[in-house]
User: Which sequence fits this backbone?
């Protein structure tokens, strides 16, 4: 009987999520509206991660060690991959909420500010043109780098372009409105913690033990030799995924600034009021 190392290693995300959940419950830090924003955020971003696997896993990734997983697969992809995306995004949001609501509470944007901006936020979706141009520049630069550094394999650096289109460019829709409400110190702490954990996990376990690897022909061509030829995309993926925090704040903004005209919003508003009264 083989030992599913990849499966067990997912505890690096699952345990912190469980501990933080217990902490939030004991401290009563997650109000109903913030819990709602958390659930929506994790669901949307986890769906994007699962879509990456279902649509492009065979083009971008390899799974060389079948003994590292329990053997359950969806379209030939280990189920651990899907668990990883769900728990990974969950970890990012929970870490941010922990910093925003407790560890770095001094820099928290109070809930009253959201409601106070209702009259100014006449529309909750703004396109940040500068970010959109940055995203386009990244894609063009990636195409050039692929032809110069890694001309073999696929014609385009598919993994990098997917990350840019699924994470960076959509942030152009959120940044202009969320920048007023994000706890940027909590954002930076969460991002650095996530990047550090993910890189250590990948370099010390995943690549040398064969949990997964990369189709080098689909990458930009920038590999870190001392890290088992880890591609640049793998280093930056969690930087791109900091978008999850913008989505969380955006959902909160939509809640706090929307007029309570729908039955669902009225119910959530009433539950939130009762929760704060009991607290």
Assistant:
């Amino acid at each position: 009987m083989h030992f599913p190392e990849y499966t067990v290693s997912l505890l690096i995300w699952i345990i912190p999520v469980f501990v933080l959940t217990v902490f939030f419950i004991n401290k009563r830090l997650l109000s109903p509206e913030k819990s709602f924003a958390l659930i929506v955020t994790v669901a949307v971003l986890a769906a994007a991660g699962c879509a990456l696997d279902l649509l492009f896993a065979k083009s971008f990734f390899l799974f060389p060690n079948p003994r590292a997983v329990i053997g359950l697969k969806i379209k030939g992809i280990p189920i651990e991959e899907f668990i990883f995306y769900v728990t990974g995004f969950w970890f990012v949001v929970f870490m941010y909420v922990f910093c925003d609501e407790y560890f770095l509470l001094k820099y928290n944007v109070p809930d009253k500010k959201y409601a106070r901006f209702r009259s100014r936020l006449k529309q909750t979706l703004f396109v940040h043109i500068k970010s959109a141009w940055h995203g386009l520049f990244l894609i063009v630069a990636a195409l050039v780098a692929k032809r110069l550094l890694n001309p073999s394999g696929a014609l385009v650096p598919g993994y990098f372009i997917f990350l840019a289109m699924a994470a960076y460019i959509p942030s152009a829709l959120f940044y202009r409105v969320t920048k007023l409400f994000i706890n940027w110190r909590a954002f930076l702490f969460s991002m650095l913690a996530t990047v550090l954990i993910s890189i250590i996990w990948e370099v010390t376990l995943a690549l040398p033990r064969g949990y997964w690897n990369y189709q080098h022909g689909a990458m930009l061509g920038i590999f870190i030799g001392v890290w088992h030829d880890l591609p640049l995309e793998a280093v930056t993926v969690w930087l791109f995924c900091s978008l999850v925090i913008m989505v969380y704040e955006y959902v909160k903004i939509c809640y706090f600034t929307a007029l309570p005209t729908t039955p669902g919003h009225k119910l959530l508003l009433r539950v939130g009021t009762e929760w704060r009264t009991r607290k």
